[in-house]
Amino acid sequence: MSSEMLPAVIETSNAERKQDLSDQEESRKPRLGEGLEPVSKRQMKKLIKQKQWEEQRELRKQKRKEKRKRKQLERQGQLESNLDGNDRKRIRRGVVHSTLRLIIDCSFDSLMVLKDIKKLHKQIQRCYAENRRALHPVQFYLTSHGGQLKKNMDENDKGWVNWKDIHIKPDHYSEFIKKEDLIYLTSDSPNVLKELDESKAYVIGGLVDHNHHKGLTYKEASNHGIDHAQLPLGNFVKMNSRKVLAVNHVFEIILEYLETRDWQEAFFTILPQRKGAVPTDKACESSSCNKKSARVEGGLDSDSSEEEDSRNELDSPREEKKQDEENSTESVVSSVPH
């Protein structure tokens, strides 16, 4: 064999060897229904799903395009409604802010255990949320802020530092508000409010004490030489329980009165159902009217409720409605614009 033919023979043999190797590899690949290792049902399902996935690739792509287009149309629709003035932000532009100052006095921090501090914190959150939603929001003050309350808020509600439309101060309210402008709201006061003076600053005692410190807020007002009064609850309402209300209930009643200018409507919109509140005229139709009235009047010497949850439950008709609405969104405070 000549030297010229040798490279051709070698090349031919290499090509044949490669072909044999590829045939062997092909024969080793598993085939459907044949081979050394038959395909299991699970593997078969995976192969079918993979095939379907590949076949539907274009369909998924088309659906994504349609979804993007739909969202774009929704955004355009929202923009048009905003221009028409139908969104919440534009509605809030029509809110009329009251000049009335409403203060929660937190100077009783050392008299409460941590459990009651947490309840007070929740009530303050409710007050903040309601004031932000109100048609006539007040000038909201949180004074003597510190101690256990501030620590609890720092640990469990760090967003409080970003709250808007509220004045949170470590100082006592008497240090920056004139004494003649102050009126302390306490159920022990012999003075009954007839109407609200929006040039005044009304103080609510930030105390959850379960009847341990009777008459404390009345003493606080007397010691500082501050005018005091109680809401005209007895003039419009007869209740099965004491007249003392939670911090947030007093706050919400004032907000409601500023909107309606009707004490009875404000009371019956806010008061929890468990208090068994009825209008005074209907209450007197009952044969037991005098007995219930005596029990209520006898309970006017307290700044706190007898029941543990009486300052914390929020089960008025309006609150039940709001709770249903909030279930579709979220927290009490998280649903409020900050």
Rg (CA only): 36 Å
Low-pLDDT stretches: 32-36, 86-91, 286-332
Mean pLDDT: 76
**Dominant shape:** elongated
Proportion of helical residues: 40-55%
The major beta sheet can be summarized as:
6 strands, parallel
* Estimated share of beta-strand residues: 5-15%
Sequence-ordered SSE layout with sheet pairings:
Blueprint: H1 6-28, H2 41-55, H3 57-84, H4 88-92, E1 101-105, H5 114-133, E2 139-143, H6 147-156, E3 166-168, E4 182-185, E5 201-205, H7 216-223, E6 227-229, H8 233-236, E7 237-238, H9 247-260, H10 263-270, E8 278-279, H11 280-283, H12 289-297, H13 317-327
Parallel strand pairs: 1-2, 1-5, 2-3, 4-5, 4-6
Antiparallel strand pairs: 7-8
Keyword list:
single chain, about 350 residues, alpha/beta, two-stranded antiparallel sheet, 13 helices, elongated, MT_TRM10-typ, methyltransferase activity
